[in-house]
Amino acid sequence: LLFDVPAGWKERVLAAFRRTVLSSPLDLVVSSSALQSAWMLAMAGVAVPQVRPHATHLRGLYLAPEREEKLRTMSVIVLRSTWINSLMGEAFRAILGRLLDSSGLGGVLNFKWLLSGTFLEYEEIAKSHHAAVFLPEQPDKLTFWEQYEMSMPLWLPTADFWARIHAIGEYRYSVFARLWASTLPEGDEAAAACGLPEPLFFRSDSMDELEVDSPMAPALWFHLTDYAIFPHLQLFGSAAELITQLLAADLGGISAEMAAFNARTWEASASFYR
Q1: Within its chain, how far is the Cα of 70 from the centroid?
Q2: Which of 44, 80, 149, 195 is a plausible cystine mate for 18, CB 3.0–4.6 Å?
Q3: Which of 39, 225, 173 is nearest to 235 (CA)?
Q4: Which residues lie across from 234 on neighbouring strands?
Q5: How far apart are the first and last CA of the chain?
Q6: Dist. CA 124–CA 198, nearest whole Å
């Protein structure tokens, strides 16, 4: 709501949002993640229910390979994010390639990077690849929920790794940037009551002030994202760890567990809207 709001209007918009949540007879406000609900509580002092996004039309697209096929060759898609086109992302890609070449695994693990300008349909993603890697620069990307709905084994960065990824956008497009900082008194009271150990937004405005922001802030909020909450995700902290985990993964077992979680949460979501 606040992305395109002039600085002087932010509190007025938050106040209108609070009134909508608490008293509108025509509107139902839900969040897509625990993190979004936490933001709304700390900014506007309202408790909003969380219902996960679904993409039921994507179910059944992915079929896990046979164990023998996976050992022979494994196709891994790296999903699009602004980070993989950054300098840090290019360095990670180069290191990953060097590790594959030096270990003789270049023909065993084949990575396809969805860089800017490269697009694939969901069916092609699911049927032409065995696993997916996602390095999200933001805490609530629709790509994540779509990929999980396919029950396609999914690798994401650990909290420590994600904090480093998120730092690249701290002053430009981060949802934690000081640019979006605004709270109502009710939000301040709620945040204090919850005992939040870190501020909701970054405090610095430029790279010269980097030291005033602790990397613990995004690491803390990472644990309220579905990247950390959803089960059966594979988390890696380095290129070497990613390679090791992919080679040892039981893709069929992971996919089956993801499908079962999708079914359970769909029941809960459908029940909420009924």
Answers
A1: 26
A2: 44
A3: 225
A4: 155
A5: 27
A6: 42
Q: How far apart are CA 250 and CA 274, in angstroms?
A: 37
- The whole-model pTM stands at 0.89
Q: How far apart are CA 224 and CA 126, in angstroms?
A: 27
The pLDDT assigned to 210 comes to: 65
Structure tokens at 15: 């106040």
The answer to whether the beta carbons of residues 197 and 27 sit under 8 Å apart is no
Query: How far is 64 from 132, CA to CA, in rounded Å?
Result: 12
Contact 20, 32 (CB under 8 A): no
pLDDT above 80 for 196: no
Residue 39: which residues within 8 A CB-CB, separation 6 or more?
A: 200
List pLDDT tens digits, range 4-17: 888 789 999 999 99
Bridge partner residues of 74 (DSSP): 109
Q: Are 154 and 134 in contact (CB under 8 A)?
A: yes
Structure tokens at 22: 């608490």
Q: Which residues contact 31 (CB under 8 A, 6 or more apart)?
A: 37, 40, 48, 49, 50, 51
